[in-house]
C-alpha cells in the first residue's frame, strides 16, 4: 500500500534521516519508535504530504490516506472526539472547503464554465481520495477504539 524509496530529509543543516526505504502492506500493523527528535513525526508528515522530501519518493496505492493524531493535541475546550479524529483528514477537509467556496462563487458568477471545471477537478480528487467516506471511517475508528459517543467532550474548562 505504501512504498518509501530512498527518502532523505534535512532540517537546518542536520540530516534527520537519509536514504530510508520500507514498505507497508495491507493489514500490516506498524509502530514507529525512537528518541525525541529522531524524525518520527517528520516521517508521518512526509507520508501525509504535510512536509516535502529532500530526496527519494513515496508511492501509495490509489485511494490510500495516511493520517495521524499529534502526540500533543491542539484542541480547544469545546473539542469532541469526532473533531479529534477528523483532524487526520485535513487534506480532504481543505478540498471540501474549496468546493464550498466554489459553490458560493458559482451562484453569483458569470464565468461559470471555468468554475465548473475547477469544481469538477476538486470533486474528482475528493471522491478518489475517499472524501465521501470520511465520516464512516471516523466511525469505524471510534468503533475499533470502543468510543460509543463521538460527540462526547474531550476536555473541560
UniProtKB/TrEMBL annotation:
Coiled-coil ranges per the record? none
- Which InterPro entries does the record associate with it? ABC_transporter-like_ATP-bd, ABCF_ATPase, P-loop_NTPase
Q: List, for all copies, the residue spans of the domain called ABC transporter.
A: 18-104
Q: Which Pfam families match?
A: ABC_tran
What's the name of the protein?
A: ATPase subunit of ABC transporter with duplicated ATPase domains
Q: What taxonomic ancestry is recorded?
A: Bacteria, Bacillati, Bacillota, Bacilli, Bacillales
Amino acid at each position: 500500500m505504501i512504498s518509501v524509496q530512498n527518502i532523505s530529509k534535512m532540517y537546518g543543516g542536520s540530516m534527520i534521516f537519509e536514504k530510508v526505504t520500507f514498505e507497508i502492506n495491507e493489514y500490516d500493523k506498524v509502530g514507529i519508535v525512537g528518541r525525541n527528535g529522531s524524525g518520527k513525526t517528520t516521517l508521518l508528515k512526509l507520508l501525509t504530504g504535510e512536509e516535502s522530501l529532500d530526496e527519494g519518493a513515496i508511492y501509495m496505492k490509489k485511494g490510500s490516506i495516511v493520517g495521524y493524531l499529534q502526540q500533543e493535541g491542539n484542541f480547544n475546550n469545546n473539542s469532541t472526539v469526532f473533531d479529534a479524529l477528523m483532524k487526520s483528514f485535513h487534506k480532504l477537509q481543505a478540498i471540501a472547503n474549496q468546493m464550498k467556496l466554489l459553490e458560493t462563487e458559482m451562484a453569483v458568477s458569470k464565468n461559470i464554465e471555468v468554475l465548473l471545471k475547477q469544481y469538477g477537478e476538486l470533486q474528482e480528487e475528493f471522491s478518489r481520495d475517499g472524501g465521501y467516506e470520511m465520516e464512516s471511517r471516523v466511525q469505524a475508528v471510534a468503533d475499533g477504539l470502543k468510543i460509543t459517543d463521538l460527540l462526547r467532550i474531550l476536555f473541560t474548562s
